[in-house]
């Protein structure tokens, strides 16, 4: 499996299927250091998508890699001139 993280989505490309989790539809995510997995829940999919990479690759700071990607794609409204 290959995982791509952009400022708009996470894409999981496997040998049998590809899944996309758009940040605009992201309800939440959960990282588990013990099992080395991250689960994404999006509003347009009934079941969450989980990627397993094993505890040897798991690092406590994985959330800090994902969270900046979530905020990077946010739209800001222009401020009104004073």
Explain what you see:
It is a single chain. By secondary structure, the protein is mainly beta. The chain has a domain at 24-60. 13% of the residues lie in helices and 38% in strands. It contains 1 helix and 6 strands. The chain has one helix at residues 62-72, and strands at residues 2-5, 9-13, 18-22, 26-32, 37-42, 49-52. The strands form 2 sheets. A 3-stranded antiparallel beta sheet has the order 1-2-3. It has a 3-stranded antiparallel beta sheet with strand order 4-5-6, with no helix packed on it. Strand 2 and strand 3 (18-22) form a beta hairpin. The radius of gyration is 15 Å and the shape is globular. The relative contact order is 0.19. Mean pLDDT is 77; it is low at 67-80.
